[in-house]
Please model this.
Amino acid sequence: MKRLGVLSVLIFAILLSACQTRESFRVLNKGIVSDSASDDVYEPDDVQKTYQALNYDEQKAIWISYIELADFLSGDEESFKSKFSKAIESVKASGFNTIYVHVRAFGDAYYNSDVYPKAFIVSSDFDPLEIMTKLSHEREISFHAWINPFRCMSYDNMETIDDSFQTKKWFDESNGILKSVPDNTNYWLNPAYDEVFELINSGVKEIVENYEVDGIHFDDYFFPTPDESFDREEFEKSGESDLSEYRTSRINKMVSGVYKTIKSINKSVVFGLSPQGNIDNDYNLQFADVKKWCAEEGFCDYIAPQVYYGYESVCPYAQTIKTWSDMCKGSGVKLVIGLGEYKILSEEEFISTKGIIANMINDAKKLDNYSGVAVYNYKNLFAADDENAERVMAEKELIEKAIK
Model:
């Protein structure tokens, strides 16, 4: 009996040791946990679990651009919290559940970054992105970090940023990686270089690792310009025979690389692309392979084409959204229809047709592959000037009925 007791103690000690080994984890980054071996070992109580992103089967989204953020950031931290809280409370009250918010518009950062310089509109020491994600989640609003991957600052602004940032090094070296384009004051990263993709992925990685974002969102600024001289030298060195195919393959490489980067960190964070609604323009001007993105895995979780066209336009709304729906058939890529609400103050068919955006929402819901709508943008719908307030309010009320 005594011998059996000693044996039991030994077995218990071995099991306890094994359990302790299995339950120790290595903390890779904020919110990311691995069971790989490492010198940096923490017990379970010290481990932060992977953030589970908040996303909805039916997106009801609003774009909030750097233009609105400039107003929100015009004061101190408390002023920013107050203004942003008011904005998302209005968004939620109207039935929306998702926001696409600019966090990098011009090769800059609206958050604490080691990869990109701080945006000029962020003048205070607080971190806008940390505040925005926290306030959004408190109201069960999904937060997608909106990035323009290639667009950078103007010449004057580029000169002022710290020399330690990679974009400044490329700017000073004038080596073809950071270039100007005709009729545009901004500099643009050249997709011909893998180093550019590495920078873009580093920026995405930094956001997904360090902030509780629910998605990464790219809009329709894919290839910087259709001008053939932009990357002529790199194209000729590539050995490829067709410039359009070469550019399209480069953008595909960038998009798939970002998708892999996101999923390697947190599979619950989604990647969304918002190309132009005009498919010919996507291919001929942006070199955006939207048919592949809609049909194949490994590029995006949702696609939100900007179908900013009336029913009687050169790209008739009803026909255009059906084409996009057919492109997404059977792929698992969710389709979110982007709507240009701002046109109710600028384009005749939208001005004269009360409830046109609500009608578009209702038509989108009839699609076989419908997964939501996104409205551009917050300011036009929720902060219209007094002159247009009555017209906008009438439209907003009908939109609220349509999306709920």
